[in-house]
Amino acid sequence: MLHRKYRKQRGGVILESLIGMCFLLFLCFALVELFLMIGRQMIMDYSSFYGAKALALGFAGENCFKATRIAASGIAGRDITSDSEYQVPLSQSSAEVRDKLRMQAARYMSLGRASGVEYEYWFSSGDGPRFDWGLSPYDDFVRCVFVFKDPPFLMEAMKKLMNLSAPGRVPEPEGDTRMFNYAKIWLDE
Known about the structure:
Helix 2 packs antiparallel against helix 3 (61-71). The protein folds into two domains: 12-78 and 119-188, no CATH class; 79-118, no CATH class. The chain has a three-stranded antiparallel beta sheet with strand order 1-2-3. The radius of gyration is 24 Å and the shape is elongated. It has helices spanning 2-8, 12-56, 61-71, 94-111, 156-161, 182-188, and strands at 130-137, 141-149, 174-180. The protein is α+β, with helices and mostly antiparallel strands and 189 residues long. A hairpin with a 3-residue loop joins strand 1 and strand 2 (141-149).
């Protein structure tokens, strides 16, 4: 009689373990996505600060936007630079990568889009991941808003599992910085 009871429970432990492991994997991937969202938010805050700082010091709007793009290049997608000389392969050591990225940023800041330096989400428009921004120079202060529209997920299946697949449901990281307008003081005198 004891033997029959165990025979009925034979697959129960495996099934319970699989259900538990599925839940733990979902939780693990959800945490990874959460950490990516937090990292994107931090970079967007930094980028908007960088743009507001450039505007507060009197730089032109296009240069401010270039500065925000450079500051957000960590989340700007793949490097799709047209000139292979300026692409930065990930197989290089960190000092080489740092030097090439500095050179790439300087080239982009001086030549703009004509430099050939481009990341996946820099110039995107319409649907899909892209950067949106706005500058507002007021009398006493300046404001820079930098938004990452429709950011990609590490796994698109997680977007559906987390019930974020509907339009407008994906949290969009946004940096919004206000700063005193130093250029007005210096340029008015």
